[in-house]
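Async update (no meeting this week)

Hi team, since we skipped the sync, here's where things stand on the single-chain job. The sequence we agreed to prioritize is pasted below, unchanged from the tracker. I ran it this morning and attached the output directly underneath so nobody has to dig for it. Comments welcome in thread, and please keep replies under the output.
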Amino acid sequence: MKQKLTCTIALLVLTISLQAQQLFWFIENSKIGYKNLTGATIIQPKYGMAGNFTNGITYASAGHSTISGKFGFIDKKGNWVIQPDFDAADDFTEGLARVLKNGKWGFINTKGKMIIAPQFRLCFSFINGHAKASNENNNWGLIDTEGKYVIEPVYYDITDMGKEKVLAVKKTIGSKWQIINILKDPVSEKEFSLVRNFAEGLAPARDETDKWGFINAKGEWVIEPVYTNAASFSGGLAAVETDYAKWGFIDKFNTFLIKPEYDRQSAFKQGFALVEKGKYYMYINKTGEVVLQFEK
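Output:
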């Protein structure tokens, strides 16, 4: 029992320590900087755009520096660890980050080495080993970490692939969304007016009445479509909108753990979500407690 208590205390201390090291994005005079959990400014607001730290680094734009408007990656001290040499960038996922160079998108690793040459009209971050990417004809498919299409770009739109190796596709501008597997075989006869990314086993989907719920990998409704908008699950919670007005967060049992009172929201990352309410930005934890707040 004593050993178990010691381990529990050690885990609690580690959790508190890790949270203390987290940095939170904020805006001041139209520039982005970072605060810690106590509200102390760690990185002065000087970036035109910036993201969320992953493994100690995040993208940022140089703003009004000598390399105006270019994107690179900074560490938690605000030092450039990958020089601002890109026209746009995004945070790292699964060891790769998408970057824009000379009008084309590709991917770099955490050392700044180009792993997938810029060649896509547009692409998004890697999820479960795949990334959605579009070609010159504006058609979408899925690529692997070598930049090769595993699902050819023949769709009008496409979601990321879930861990269950299923995704949703829209064949043409006028067609409905269908659920397919990696072999492009339909896994359900059901169709939806819109589907968003699968995450944690579920995907937000919209029915013919324009109401949102959540489906599983078989296209079955797990949470009935009763909401006016919905986002993918992250950290066990999903943001949903009620009556075209306010956002809150539900769990997979469709229980509101955070009541709908926010104007806008982002997904939970590392235990916190950035939300907007009135004239304030707020970081909340999974109980809805405000841990950091600042004016827009």
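Quick observations from my side:
The longest helix spans residues 2-21.
Residues 214 and 225 are 7 Å apart (CA to CA).
Reply here if anything looks off.
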